């Protein structure tokens, strides 16, 4: 057997590397890196893959495994959570205090002994600031806010996770709203937390945009999870979709401590999914209130107009009757005067010219009769014209009165009850405010086909009402 070169075993070499690295890197180092993978073992130890990315494609240019032993994990994670409001998770940059370890079997690794949360806060805020500045530079930051919100919000597209607690809270609130409003709710299922949230929400929004004419607005809601997965709502790509969306967007992402960029660019931003359901009901209640106000206003106008027109018709009736009587009386008097004068003239002529009268008596009689007939015909024509004018005027006024009575009937409370509304009384008086009834008091509910009595169990007063 030929002489072999001088050699050592793999374990011996690894041991030498470990020893030399221990001498070369004896102290802990503060290291900036991004958490690429994050897993807590059943034993309580936390295993992490740290990376540093570079280039336009953000391809990792350095990578190492790290561990937080169980004895440190609880303390480090609690400290980070209390300082940032977020959990340690994949996808965030961190400033870590590490001890460099080298093991013959597992190779190079970092043991994490401490963390500086302020670095992560600053990095997240810096990313958030970049998103805001980019949206403003692109001129799209206010675009969704400038959309008009329909006066009635009934056809609602909801982007959320079907299994999210926040979505269930929203459905419970919207289905049991105190106004009894009905809504058409359609869920566009999406991940609302985790690494896939950004792409999933954008895909759901694209599906809504394809059917934008079917909806009045879009809700993006999330609740019941930790705040560690809010990064998607600060991303430029998702927020850019929101700003340029063709429908008003209402967010209820479910966090009180911080406001995401998505909240800033949406038409309406609310704290929780339940708050979005309450907003929809209150928004529609304002429109119903305006309708009630208009109904009362129109009813008053109709009543006043009806009364005024009735008075005018009576006055015109008196005037026309008086005018008719005067015209008839005047014409009758004129005929009588002319008839008397004619008789006198005839008698005088008879006395003066008996012979001529004899000759022309028939002609005179015929002339007098013709004039009397002519005057009678004129009187008859005048009476007919007056009667036609009077009938036409009275007919037009009756038509207007009928129209006003129909308008008043449409605002009649009995007819309003037939449409599904209810009248609520307490102690015989109409209940107009929640302040007029106390919990435990009995109230009477009047419907179109009867009444029933119930008891006030709970009161909720709407802000601004």
Account of the 3D structure:
With 465 residues, this protein is of the alpha/beta class. The chain has helices spanning 10-24, 70-84, 117-137, 165-175, 197-209, 236-243, 261-265, 273-352, 354-410, 413-418; strands at 29-40, 46-54, 59-68, 93-103, 107-115, 155-160, 184-189, 217-221, 249-252, 268-270, 423-426, 429-430, 442-447, 450-455. A 5-stranded mixed barrel has the order 1-2-3-5-4. The protein has a 5-stranded parallel beta sheet with strand order 7-6-8-9-10. Strands 12-11-13-14 form a 4-stranded antiparallel beta sheet, with no helix packed on it. Strand 13 and strand 14 (450-455) form a beta hairpin. Helix 4 packs parallel to helix 8 (273-352), helix 5 (197-209) runs parallel beside helix 6 (236-243) and helix 8 packs antiparallel against helix 9 (354-410). The chain is rod-shaped, with a radius of gyration of 47 Å. The model has no long low-confidence stretch (mean pLDDT 83).
By DSSP (H or I, 4+ residues per run), the number of helices equals 10
Poorly predicted residue ranges: none
- Structural class category: alpha/beta
SSE pattern? HEEEHEEHEHEHEHEHEHHHEEEE
Proportion of β residues?
15-25%
Shape category = rod-shaped
Defining key terms:
single chain, 465 residues, alpha/beta, 5-stranded mixed β-barrel, 5-stranded parallel sheet, 10 helices
Write the layout of secondary structure elements.
Elements: H1 10-24, E1 29-40, E2 46-54, E3 59-68, H2 70-84, E4 93-103, E5 107-115, H3 117-137, E6 155-160, H4 165-175, E7 184-189, H5 197-209, E8 217-221, H6 236-243, E9 249-252, H7 261-265, E10 268-270, H8 273-352, H9 354-410, H10 413-418, E11 423-426, E12 429-430, E13 442-447, E14 450-455
Parallel strand pairs: 3-5, 6-7, 6-8, 8-9, 9-10
Antiparallel strand pairs: 1-2, 1-4, 2-3, 4-5, 11-12, 11-13, 13-14
Helix pairs in contact: 2-3, 4-8, 5-6, 8-9
